[in-house]
Write a structure and sequence with these properties.
The chain has 87 residues and is mainly α. The protein has one domain. Helices cover 63% and strands 0% of the residues. Helix 1 runs antiparallel to helix 2. The longest helix is centred in the N-terminal third of the chain and has 23 residues. The radius of gyration is 14 Å and the shape is elongated. The protein starts with 5 loop residues before the first helix and ends in a 15-residue tail after the last helix.
Length: 87
Amino acid sequence: MEQLNLADVMDKLLFTSFLNYFNTLEVTGYVPCNQMQQLLILNLYKEILGGNYDTYLTEEDREVINKALDCIYGSTCLIPYPDYTKG
């Protein structure tokens, strides 16, 4: 199977997460603040990892970000686990 790059995975994950967010809002009319904050954090990390800030990150910074993302993935119905393979 062909591997996707990190930017593609993050884009797909963020798109799916925001779709889940708006679908939840449509059905229930409410999303808890902590879940909205997780979406914002996910978006921030996507901008950091996929933008110009990437060059300023050390290996230690990347490890901290990965640990934080591991805590967010799958923690709510809004943010699924990422799919790293295409197909």
